[in-house]
Amino acid sequence: MRLLLVEDDPELGPTLKDRLDKAGFAVDLADNGKEGEILGKIEPYDVVVLDLGLPQKSGLEVLQSWRTNQVHTPVVILTARDAWHEKVDGFKAGADDYVGKPFHVEELLARINAVLKRSHKHSGVLLQSNGIVLDEETQDVTLNNGEKLQLTGTEFRLLRYMMLNPNKVLSKSRLTEHVYEMDADKDSNVIEVYVKRLRNKLGKEFISTRRGQGYVYVVEQKNHGSG
Questions:
Q1: Domain residue ranges in the chain
Q2: Residue 173: Cβ within 10 Å count
Q3: Whole-prediction pTM
């Protein structure tokens, strides 16, 4: 899943980016409001973490601009712990959740994952379907026979995106946009390699190929959203 982090603190920004990378997100970092606003409009992010106290353009103005321009990407805002009015203004502008500074990264991750699930209408606490359970903390997958398998970072991001978008045709270019960060070498042919790896681990029947279109993570409708 691809994440935009808009944070100007020279220590917190890179540190947080590193933690979010390790948590399985492809992260782009912007250190001012203007750059963040532009990236949020032109890049297909799955979620945004937005500080409100930004140089060049405030986080609130950035958020208002996105919503005015029909950018509906879920946004978790970062606010000063005691600035309750910022939280209210943020929600009015279209924020999906907030975390007060200072915060524990684990709390931020929990809120990000909850917002992602809500935006994809996934009601479960865990990501699970077809008897497969994906653990977002350990980045491993448990099969329906109880076997637990470790995933690489790219395998995890790819499977999570597919599980959040079941029964949809996902082109290689779309998958590439949501699995890799902006500066990564985005070779869509590499997606074929990782899809093959996931099929070998999960079972070939779960990911079907639509020739000339892409891939579908196949889930029976009665199982979707269980958890």
A1: 2-119, 127-217
A2: 12
A3: 0.82
